[in-house]
Design brief:
Layout: H1 2-9, E1 13-16, H2 18-25, E2 32-37, H3 41-51, E3 57-61, E4 66-71, E5 74-80, E6 82-85, E7 94-97, H4 100-105, E8 115-117, E9 126-127, H5 132-138, E10 140-141, H6 147-153, H7 156-168, E11 171-172, H8 174-183, H9 192-203, H10 209-217, H11 221-224, H12 226-229, E12 236-237, E13 240-241, H13 245-259, H14 263-271, H15 276-279, E14 281-283, E15 287-289, H16 293-307, H17 314-326, H18 340-346, H19 353-364, H20 369-377
Helix pairs in contact: 1-3, 6-8, 7-9, 7-10, 13-14, 13-19, 14-17, 14-19, 16-17
The structure holds cytidine-5'-triphosphate.
The site of cytidine-5'-triphosphate has 12 residues, from strand 2 and helix 7.
Length: 378
C-alpha cells in the first residue's frame, strides 16, 4: 500500500533501519517502521493515511519534515531522504534534502542502513551499500562511515553500539571500539534520558554483563556510572584480599536476568554493592570490612537516580530498599538501623520480600558454598 501511494505521487520510497535489520534477523514483530521517501515524507504519509481504512491518526512534525501514522499496533514514521551535518556541541544535525545514499550514509551502523524498495517496479529490492547483510551474518557492529565521524557526530551511538552488541550478541568491530574510547568524553552532550534508555535496554537483555563489560572496556562506564567502576579491583594487605566487587556485581546481574524480567530488580542487582567502595576499610584483626555499606549504598542510589534524571519515585525507593537489604536480609533489626530515613525503608519491606529473596538468590549463587549454607539456614 505504501508502494502504491508512492507510485501515485511519483516518488521512490523505502523501508529502512530497524525493521529491515529485524526482518533479516527474524526478530520479533516490529512496532516502529521507518519509511524514507525520496521527496516529501509528509506528503507520502498523507497519501498513505488516505488509503488506510479507519482514518488512522496522523501526526505531522513540519519542522522536522516527518510524519507519523498510528495504525493498529504499528507506528509508521515517514521522512524525506536527508543529508546531515553536525555541530561539535550538539546532537541536533543540520539537515538538507538528499538522496537515498545520503540518507544511508548518515545512519549509525551498517546493519541499520539497509533499505528495501517499496515501489512496484523494484518492490523488495535490497539496497545495502555497506554490506549490512554480511555484517548481520558475521554478527558485527560496524559504522557506514569512518567510525570516528559516526560517533563524534552523534555520541549516543556509542551507547547504541554497546546496546545492540548486548541485545543481539554481536561483536563491536575493533576500529569502532577504539573510536568509542577516543570519543568517550563526547557522551556529555547526550541527554541523561537517552543514556538511561540505553541502560534500561542493556539491563533488560539476556546477559547484561556483556554491555557493562563493553562500557568498562571503552571507558564509558566511569563517565556514566562511576559508582560501579569504583568497585573494580582487589586490594591485598597483610596477605588478606577482598573480592572484586565489580566482576561480582556483573555475575549477580546475569544471574538475576535468568530469573526475572523486573527492570527495577535488575537495577537493584547492578547497584547492590555500590556502598562498598566508600566504606571499605582494613582492620588488623578482622581484615577487610565494608561496614554499613548497605545504608551508604541506599543513599547513593538516590544520588545516582537524581544525577541520571531518573524519576525519584516508588521505583527508586524499591531499588533503595533492595540495596539496603540484599546483603543481609534476615539479620537486620531495629538496633542495626540508626538512620531514621533508612529505618523507614527497612521496616517497610512488605510485599517486596519475594523480590528481595530473588535478589539474594542471584547473589548467593555467586558466593562460596559455606556462605550459601549460612544464607539457606537463615
Ligand atoms: N539511527 C541513527 N542514529 C541514531 C538513532 C537512530 O542512525 N542515533 C537510525 C538507524 O538507522 C536506526 C533508525 O534510525 O535503525 C531507527 O532508530 P530507532 O528507532 O531508534 O532504533 P531501531 O534501529 O529501530 O532499533 P530499536 O527499535 O531496537 O531501538
Amino acid at each position: 500500500l505504501i508502494g502504491e501511494a508512492s507510485d501515485e505521487l511519483g516518488v521512490d520510497s523505502y523501508v529502512i533501519g530497524g525493521f529491515v535489520r529485524d526482518y533479516f534477523l527474524k526478530r520479533n514483530t516490529p512496532k516502529d517502521i521507518d519509511i524514507v521517501a525520496i521527496g516529501s515524507g509528509i506528503e507520502l504519509a498523507k497519501k498513505v493515511a488516505s488509503k488506510l481504512k479507519g482514518k488512522p491518526e496522523i501526526s505531522v512534525f513540519k519542522n522536522f519534515g516527518t510524519a507519523m501514522i498510528k495504525h493498529k499496533d504499528l507506528e509508521l514514521e515517514f521522512v524525506g531522504a536527508r543529508k546531515e551535518s553536525y555541530n561539535r556541541d550538539s546532537r541536533k544535525p543540520i539537515v538538507e534534502d538528499g538522496t537515498l545514499e545520503d540518507d544511508q550514509n548518515r545512519r549509525d551502523f551498517t546493519i541499520n542502513a539497509m533499505a528495501l524498495a517499496l515501489n512496484e517496479s523494484n518492490f523488495g529490492e535490497l539496497l545495502d551499500p555497506f554490506d549490512g547483510l554480511a555484517d548481520l551474518d558475521r554478527k558485527i557492529i560496524r559504522t557506514p562511515l569512518e567510525p570516528g565521524i559516526t560517533y563524534s557526530d552523534d555520541p549516543l551511538r556509542m551507547m547504541r553500539a554497546v546496546r545492540f552488541a548486548t541485545q543481539l550478541h554481536f561483536t563491536i568491530e575493533l576500529q569502532s571500539l577504539r573510536a568509542i574510547t577516543e570519543n568517550k568524553d563526547r557522551i556529555k552532550i547526550v541527554s541523561k534520558e537517552r543514556i538511561v534508555d540505553e541502560l534500561h535496554k542493556i539491563l533488560m537483555s539476556s546477559k547484561p554483563s556483556v554491555g557493562f563489560k563493553l562500557m568498562h572496556q571503552t571507558e564509558l562506564l566511569p563517565l556514566i556510572l562511576p559508582e560501579l567502576t569504583a568497585l573494580q579491583g582487589i586490594e591485598e594487605k597483610e596477605g588478606q584480599r577482598h573480592k572484586d566487587n565489580f566482576w561480582h556485581t556483573l555475575e549477580v546481574v546475569d544471574n538475576i536476568a535468568e530469573t526475572t524480567d523486573n527492570l527495577w530488580l535488575r537495577w537493584a542487582a547492578l547497584l547492590h554493592d555500590i556502598g562498598k567502595a566508600p566504606t571499605k576499610k582494613f582492620h588488623e584483626k578482622i581484615g577487610w570490612t565494608f561496614h554499613a555499606h548497605e545504608f551508604v549504598g541506599a543513599k547513593m542510589v538516590y544520588k545516582l537516580f537524581k544525577r541520571l534524571r531518573m524519576p525519584l519515585n516508588e521505583k527508586m525507593k524499591f531499588v533503595q530498599k533492595m540495596v539496603l537489604m540484599s546483603s543481609r536480609p534476615i539479620i537486620l533489626s531495629e538496633d542495626h538501623v540508626t538512620d531514621s530515613a533508612v529505618r523507614r525503608l527497612v521496616f517497610d519491606a512488605g510485599d517486596s520480600v519475594e523480590d528481595l529473596m530473588t535478589l539474594c538468590e542471584a547473589d548467593i549463587t555467586t558466593k562460596n558454598p559455606r556462605k550459601q549454607k549460612k544464607y539457606k539456614n537463615n
